[in-house]
Structure formats: C-alpha cells, structure tokens
Amino acid sequence: MTHNHHRRHLFIDRPLQVALLFRALLYWAVCLMAQLLMVFFFAIVSSSSDDFLANGPQLWFHLQLSVVASLVLLPVILLDLLKLSHRWVGPISRLRKSLSALSRGESVPPIRFRGGDFWQELASDVNVVAAELGRQRAASPEESEGIGEPLATNTREPAAGSKSEPVSAAAI
C-alpha cells in the first residue's frame, strides 16, 4: 500500500517561510546590484572616456540583459527555497501538533516523515517518548481517571529571567 504524501499547502508556517523568502529576495537584490556594478565598472575600465560615451547604448543593453536574466531566475530560486523549507518546517509543525496532543493526555500515532524531510531522528525520539508515556499511563491504575487531563497547563515558554525546573522522565 502506498501513501500519497503530496504537499497540500504552499505555506506551512507562513511567518517563518515568508521571512525566509523575503531574506532570499534581499540577497537576490544585493547580488543584482553587485552584478550591475561589475558590468558598469568593466565598461569604465575597458574603454577610454570617448569610447565609454559612444558605447553607452551597448552598456545599457548589457545592464538590461543582466536584469532580465536575473528576473527570470528569481521565481525559480524562490520556489526552490520554499520547497526546501517544507522539508524542515513541515516536520516541526507535525512534531509540535503531536507534542501538544501528548500534553493534553491524548495518544498519538507514531510520527513518520517523508523520505527527504529533515529531523528524522527527532521523530524517532518523540516516538520513543510517546510510547513510554503511553506505557506509564497504562501501568498506573490510580491515575487512570486523569489520562485525558493535560500534563501541563502552561504551553508557553517561560518568560525571560524566570526559572524553570527540569522535568524528569520519572515525573511524567
């Protein structure tokens, strides 16, 4: 039986992926400016002042050609970067949902990622912790009424400067 693991969403974690694409766009703009400056300075260095003015239309053509070539590549680069980001943003999103379900006392199926996704080892580690938590919940009959209760009420990160106590596996 084969599973169809196609991406259904263009953006998984919109703020993160938009920031990544915006950064790539800034890098592209800087590279384009550097390329245009190189073409311009090459024209200055390789010609005399009279030739430079006479070759103005040719220089303008080369500058336009650089911009067009760069603009043709930009969507390809941004789409590839977006697809690459799916390989780490998607798994982290799935891990976050599974951990949230575990903290609410729900059981979760083992996490499996697509073949090319990052964080494969992290999924294995979470699966081990989820299985152990399930065994502990099943083994403690005095807490069987509280299985559906959340492990923690606060799911936010501790505030800066606040102290948080580490939780041992035995405490879970």
Written overview of the protein:
The chain is mainly α and about 170 residues long. It has one domain. Helix content is about 60%, strand content about 0%. The protein is built from four helices and no strands. The chain has helices at about 15-45, 50-55, 55-105, 120-140. α3 (about 55-105) runs parallel beside α4. The chain is rod-shaped and about 95 Å long. The two termini are about 35 Å apart. Mean pLDDT is about 80; it is low at about 155-170.
List the helices and strands and how they pair.
Blueprint: H1 14-45, H2 49-54, H3 56-103, H4 120-139
- The average pLDDT value, as a whole number, equals 81
Tell me the major beta sheet: none
Radius of gyration: 27 Å
**Number of separate structural domains:** 1
Shape: rod-shaped
Core attributes:
172 residues, mainly alpha, single chain
Short description:
This protein has helices at 14-45, 49-54, 56-103, 120-139. The protein is mainly alpha-helical and 172 residues long.
